[in-house]
Amino acid sequence: MSAAGQGQNLTFATDREGTSAKPENQGQPVLVAKDVVVDYGGVHAVNRVSLSVAAGEVLGIIGPNGAGKSSFLAALGGQVRRASGTISLDGHEVSGLLPHQRARLGLARTFQTTSEFSRMTVFENLVTAAEGDTGSSLKAVVLHPRRTAQREQELVSHAWEVLERFEMTQVANLYGGELSGGQRRLVEIMRCLMRRPKVLLLDEPMVGVAPHLTGKLISDLRGISRDGLAIVVVEHAMEVVRKLCDRVMVMAFGEVIASGTFEEVAQDATVQSAYLS
Amino acid sequence: MSAWGFYVATLLIYFAVDLLSGIALNLQFGYAGVVNFGYIVFQAVGAYVAAVVTLGPSLGAGSYQQYILGAHLPFPLDLLAATAAGALLSLLVGLFSLRRMRRDYQAAVLLIVSLIALQVVSADVPLFNGSNGLTGVGWPLGQLFGVTATQSPWLYTVWSLVVVAVVFVGVSWLSRSPWGRSLRAMRDNQGAASAMGLNITSLRLQVFVIGGAIAGLSGGLLVEYIGAWSPGAWGYAETFVIFTAIFVGGVGNYRGVVLGVLLVPVIFLEIPRFLPAIGYPGLTASLEWVVIGLAWMLCIFFRPRGILPERRLHVTPPGALEPGALQPEAAPR
After folding, report:
1. Which residue in A5, A54, A98, B47 has its CB near the most CB atoms, within 10 A?
2. pLDDT confidence bin for B327, thresholds 50/70/90
């Protein structure tokens, strides 16, 4: 399968202000959430939070511990049920859909706690993620073995490409459970990219990642977003947020208290009192 | 045929039946992480259905045995009916027990299903003749050649081994396929697998129904040899013998399952027959269960992956890559 066949060309530009041509969907809202509420036993973990992320945009969500950032991300991904509010993905209403249905519409995510497939090799982690629902169905395997094998070969090539880009070829044959914490984060991100998503949700992606890879990961993510991928990232490391994100949304006590560029929210008095100061 | 010959043939037939169970449970548990503590129910329904579709119409209340669905189905419809019964019951049980529920709760539900099924079948005499069970079950394939299973145990042995070989090859192939990898992803992390687009409920149900079909087949194969089936043959503890075999042999490795089934339900449980009786009558049989439990626990503590662990997929970088590169190779841990 070619990248073009998936409707999105994944390249890994390394310069922040790269000159690659912008895709047609650049600037169009891909993920829109309105007044999302998440309740845990009557407590509003997320209270009427809205966002709109465009193709090619990186939105950062920051806030102190317990602000509801991860709960909001889980509501977007379908891992927790929202009590009210609407979520649409690329024009499709997905509020009532299960996680795998949202994934099939182009949503990929990583988790706060690393979620590698621990008894599968790194390589298998990647190929399995890329196969998703179509190539790995029982029907496809039994009724179309030749097509399945052909697709598998294409995914193998793509997996090596991604492994090389993230300098992870040396660990391709290690089990997910044998990796360091940072390597597991990278596997999660690579797995998402193998799916060629429209929206990428990252929950603290830089935790444990080796310092020399952090800068590279930021530039890679910037490059990918320029190719039309919308990214929502929850992150505590302010330097990462500053370099990576076009816009920043600040949450506290389940609500949005500020949004804007990093510089704007950093100057916001409410944010300073709630978080940054 | 000598007594020893009959004994060895019978042992091999039991080995084939237990291996079918091991294959089914390894697919469900070793690959998909579904803890089917009610496995024996699906084998039992296959045995009952194979029995009633070969016994002929029931003579009803007052006769020495009564049952439903009585018929004289020829080969291979008898075993197909048993397989279908296992699959259908799995589908029904799976639809309510495998939905969005935690894995340990699913295991508890399936164990309870096993206990309830045993009580229902024992108490409901018109269903499958209650606790007395069914006797006089024939072998439709053998009837084609004018022989019975007990007259030709070696022929039945060959037939059983052919069946298990076909299932072994088929399930191994499926497990190595992208579908099998999806099962392993689900086993390792359901949340992440779901976020990658895998429909967890559907995958669980698929693997549950395939395992149930194999269980039904194994029940049919067993009852057509021993000729009788009753609730005493399918207590819930029988499931744990197969689980122990998988843990001893190697979870997620079908060769390990062959080894485990050979070691636990065949060799391990046959050894006491050759030991002098100890204590009061029945003590040796009871101790067997203690030993089975101990073997399982020791495996969990000292060799949780079993004697032959799941094989690691080994890939080589591009350039050295050949078609079919996604083949497992044994690699040192």
Report:
1. B47
2. low
